[in-house]
Design brief:
Elements: H1 3-20, E1 25-36, E2 39-44, E3 49-54, E4 57-58, H2 67-78, E5 82-90, E6 96-102, E7 105-106, H3 107-113, E8 118-119, H4 129-144, H5 158-170
Parallel strand pairs: 3-6
Antiparallel strand pairs: 1-2, 1-5, 2-3, 4-8, 5-6, 6-7
Length: about 170
């Protein structure tokens, strides 16, 4: 091996490894489970199940109003269907967090548009600028048209509902 190449190889490898740290993985598979309005299970071609948390949205929890409706909405969009998942991270529960596409359609955005999830602004910086704009617009349109839970006078975001549940569980009885 040429001395110039041998000297440059470690530097090149470190650049490639550093550049791939935030790279997106594309997972292709069939949706075999819908846990709630923002979590699915995808079975890949190699028969591995992947728990996927839909990025950029937060749907009502199953125990709160609209939680079952959100689950049914997501199920109607993807259950039994072939999807692509663009993912680059895992959450604290080790679920892969990603954007789910079915036939090129952004399913995360479709759930927002149906009024069955909030745009999860806390993670907006992780989204592409075009997705941030589209998700904000979809949430505003759903609220303005009173679709889904926006038909309620004062829907409770899931992060507030979870916080209240945690407080209840730590209060003395």
């Amino acid at each position: 091996m040429n001395l110039v190449y041998r000297a440059a190889l470690p530097a090149l490898l470190s650049i490639l490894v550093a550049g791939s740290a935030g790279a997106q993985t594309v997972l292709v598979g069939r949706v075999v489970g819908v846990h709630d309005g923002d979590t699915i299970t995808v079975l890949s071609a190699d028969q591995v199940q992947h728990k996927i948390r839909l990025a950029g949205i937060d749907a009502p929890e199953l125990g709160q109003p609209w939680g079952q409706n959100a689950r049914r909405t997501l199920s109607g969009l993807v259950f039994g269907q072939q999807v692509e998942v663009l993912t680059s991270k895992r959450d604290r529960y080790q679920r892969e967090v990603g954007k789910v596409l079915r036939a090129g359609k952004d399913i995360n955005l479709a759930v927002l548009d149906a009024g069955m999830a909030w745009w999860y602004r806390e993670y907006a910086k992780e989204q592409a600028p075009s997705d941030r704009a589209a998700y904000a617009r979809a949430e505003a349109d759903a609220a303005g048209d009173q679709r889904g839970f926006w038909a309620d006078r004062d829907p409770v975001p899931p992060w507030e509902w979870r916080r209240a549940k945690r407080r209840e569980s730590t209060e003395p009885r």
